[in-house]
Amino acid sequence: MIQLHDLQFEPFISEAEIEEAIAKVASQLNADYKDENPVFLGVLNGAFMFASDVIKRFEGDCEVSFVKLGSYEGTSTTGAVKTLLGLNQQLKERRVIIIEDIVDTGNTLEEINKILKKEGVADYQVATLFFKPEAYKKEFNIKYAGLEIPNKFIVGYGLDYDGLGRNLTKVYKRKE
Ligand SMILES: O=P(O)(O)OC[C@H]1O[C@H](OP(=O)(O)OP(=O)(O)O)[C@H](O)[C@@H]1O
Ligand SMILES: Nc1nc2[nH]cnc2c(=O)[nH]1
């Protein structure tokens, strides 16, 4: 059990399970994009760790870029996604892979969809380490998902509770 601010969290996903999920997504991305020179577009802050680990395993040429969006306060979404740092690279006619730590309601993705449509990208897909199918309310297909998880609040491996927990190498869930 660990404590972050006022909440307790219990172990939920081990390092080995995380490794396996990363390897699965990396092998799918290698199969689909190895000769495509894609742009990996990481969504800060949460995706920094997954982006690093999955992109390291990519075997072709690629470029890496980041945007910073935020909508979570405490343990729930505010529903309003703020763009805190926008795109700083031309993506016209490029194949883009959005790199997310987690897809939950899909609100963040919807905001990125808007950004990418304006850019005139060739196409884009999402690669996320964690996916909550019960919470996801949008149409866009999540093509690459490392692990499907229940609708619980988690921390670790990039994910925070009010700023804490991003450095944890395992994933924990809120104690009920
Ligand atoms: O599908 P959604 O309900 O939109 O949730 C997913 C988003 O929530 C988290 O970001 P957050 O807003 O907590 O910002 P952070 O990455 O800086 O922690 C996570 O990194 C995803 O980007
Ligand atoms: N830390 C954290 N951020 C999230 N953003 C969307 N879902 C989650 C979650 O379960 N945990």
Automatic annotation (TrEMBL):
Q: Which organism is it from?
A: Autumnicola musiva
| Ranges for domain Phosphoribosyltransferase | 17-161
Involved pathway(s):
Purine metabolism; IMP biosynthesis via salvage pathway; IMP from hypoxanthine: step 1/1
Q: Sorted alphabetically, which PANTHER family does this protein's record hold?
A: HYPOXANTHINE PHOSPHORIBOSYLTRANSFERASE (PTHR43340:SF1), HYPOXANTHINE-GUANINE PHOSPHORIBOSYLTRANSFERASE (PTHR43340)
Q: What span is annotated as the signal peptide, if there is one?
A: none
Query: Which keywords fit this entry according to its UniProt record?
Result: Cytoplasm, Glycosyltransferase, Magnesium, Metal-binding, Nucleotide-binding, Purine salvage, Transferase
The record's comment on protein family reads: Belongs to the purine/pyrimidine phosphoribosyltransferase family.
Location of the protein in the cell: Cytoplasm
| Database matches in SUPFAM superfamilies | PRTase-like (SSF53271)
Q: Which reaction does it catalyse?
A: GMP + diphosphate = guanine + 5-phospho-alpha-D-ribose 1-diphosphate; IMP + diphosphate = hypoxanthine + 5-phospho-alpha-D-ribose 1-diphosphate
Q: State its cofactor.
A: Mg(2+)
Q: What is its EC number?
A: 2.4.2.8
Q: What is this protein called?
A: Hypoxanthine phosphoribosyltransferase
**Sample GO molecular function, one term:** glycosyltransferase activity
Q: Which CDD domains match?
A: PRTases_typeI (cd06223)
